[in-house]
Every structure is written in structure tokens, then in C-alpha cells.
Amino acid sequence: MPFFRLATEATSFPELSEAVPPIFYEFYNQGEEGPILLLIHGAGNNYLSWPPQLRRLAGARVYAIDLPGHGQSAPLRSKEGSEVTVATYAAVINGMIH
Fold first, then answer.
1. How much is the pTM?
2. Local confidence band at 27 (pLDDT 50, 70, 90 cut-offs)
3. How far is CA 37 from each of CA 62, 96, 97, rounded to the nearest angstrom?
């Protein structure tokens, strides 16, 4: 199964009790030189929440991910007294794409 693994410097977040787990994705290559599209699902869903026509968009290279704690991606674990926030998820995605 394909997983994104964040670079070592991007896996440590002060609010988390452990490193960011690998993030599951499906890759659809419909264009060797086309744009790269990252599909991020909403709460309570997974990568399959995107219609097949969008996941297989003509001329594009599409990554459809399962956010941590959704689908096939393990959850983020917060330290006692801390919370995993939307900002944490945004930082994880930012670390994944850089």
C-alpha cells in the first residue's frame, strides 16, 4: 500500500505524543506532464469520498489521501493536555507536500 512519510524534520509537532504516522494515498496518473492535484477529504470520510471521475481527472496526476485517523491512515496522538487541531492537520499536510 502506498504511504507518504514525512521528512524527519517535519514529523515532530509539540502537541503530539509521537511522530506523525505515514499517510495513506492513492495515485492516479492520467497525464505524464499534467498538473498535480491533491484531494483532501472532509471530516469522517476517506479518499473514496471523491468521485471516480475527479480522482481520474484527464491530463492530471492526482493524489487522493486519507487524513490521519481516517481510512487507512493511523491517527495523530496528542500529548496529555494538548489537542490535535485543524492547524495541526494543516501543518502535517504542509510537511507532506514540501
1. 0.83
2. very high
3. 5, 14, 11
